[in-house]
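Before our next group meeting I need something from you. Please put the record directly below this note.
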Amino acid sequence: MKLPFMSQMRQAAQKMVRKGATAMLQKAVESTLQQQQKLQEQRMNTPRPAPGTPPGGMRDLNPAPDYTSAKAPASSAATPANAKAEAETIAAAMDDARPICKTAAEPAPTAEPAPAAEQATAATAPNPAINPAAYAQDMLEKMGIKIDLTASFERGIDLGTLRHPGTATPPPPLPAGARFERGSYANHAGSRNYKLFIPSSYRGQPMPLLVMLHGCTQNPDDFATGTQMNQVAEEAGCLVVYPEQTAGANQSKCWNWFNAIDQQRGQGEPSIIAGIAEQIGNDYAVNPQQVYVAGLSAGGAMAVIVGTLYPELFAAVGVHSGLPFASATDLPSALSAMKRGASNAPRAGNGSRPIIVFHGDSDTTVNPRNGEQVIAQQLDHLDADPDVQSGAVPNGYRYTQTTHTGADGAPLGEHWVVHGAGHAWSGGSEHGSYTDSRGPDASREMLRFFRTVS
C-alpha cells in the first residue's frame, strides 16, 4: 500500500527536477521515499490478527488508491500523445493542488513503549500527511544534507497556489493617487478581462501605453507584483494594461502562442490583445506613437506574435524568456522549440518593430537559444556589428548586453543574457511568482528602451 503523501512528495520531486532543481535534492527526496516505502512493506508483512478476531480499530472502508496504475511513467515512447502531455506539463508552472483523502489507520503491532526522548522527538516531528514539505525537510536534515527544500521549491514552482489554493493573488500596492482598475474586451474571437494601471500623474494628457502579457499560471495582480512594472510606470508616467488569459482557453492559463489560429492577424488571441490596446486608446488619452507590448514566457512568445502582426499599433516589443514568431504550430513542435530552440521559424524582419529581449542562460524551461533566435528573426536585415557590453548586479548576476543599431545610429534591438538566471523575470520582486531579484531590472530597462525608440 502507498500512502497518499508519498505519492504527493514523489510528484513534487519530479516537478522540481523539471524546473531545474539540483540532482542532489532529487536523490535525497527519492531516497527518503524509498525508505518510507520499505517501512510500509515491512508493516504489510507483519502478522495481523485472524479474521475472526475483533479488530482493535475501525475497518478501512476507503483504502488508499493505487497511484502507480494511474500515473504514466515519466519517460515513455515519443508519441504525439506523450509529447502533448509533456508539453502541457512543461508549459504549466505547476499542476492544480488537489485535496488528498485520509484513510482510517490500520492497527499497528504491539510494541514496547519508546523511550521518553524518542517520544518527544516523534511528537515534534512534522506530520507527513499534513505537511509533506516540512516532513521531507526534517528527513533531509536527519540525513545530514544541508538543503533548504522550501527555497528550492520556490525557485522552481509557484508555492502560492499550494499555500493558498483557489484564492486570488492580492493586488500590488499602489502609489498614492494611482488606480488599478478592471475592464473587459470582446470581439469575434472571444473575450478577456484585463486590469489597467493609471498613474497618479494622469490628468487626461496623452501618455504611453504598455501591454503586459503574463506567463503560465499567472494573473494580472501576480504579474504586476512580480515585475513591479506599476511602480516603474508611476515614475515614467505610463499606462499599463494586463490582459488576463482564462483557464477555459488554456488549462494552465498560458497564451496559446503555438496554435496556428493564434498566429494570424485578425484572428484568435492576437486580435483580442490588439483590441484591448485599441480600447484603452479610445477610453484614455494615449500617445499612438508610444504603444508597446511585452511579456514573460508564453506571454513573451505572444508579445512577439502581436508585435509582428500589428506593427502599425505597437512601436516596440519586449520579450522575457520567450520564443520567436511562429516557432511552433502544435504542442509537439512547441515542446521541441522550448527544449532546443525553434527549427523552422519564418523570417519576420520586414514587419517587425524595435525589440528588447531578456533571457537567463540557465533557463531549463525555455532554451536560451530562443532569445538569440528572437533577435535574429526580428533584426535579420541588419548588417552592422552590434555593440557588446558586460556588467554585474551588486551581489547578483553578471550579464551581457548586446545592442543593435540602424544605419542612423538609432537603437533597434537589445539582447540581455543574464548569466546564471533561470526562467524568471530579471530584477523582479520575490512577492510575485517567477521572479529573480538578483538580475538587472528588466522592467526599468524595457521602459528605457521603449522611450529611446519612439
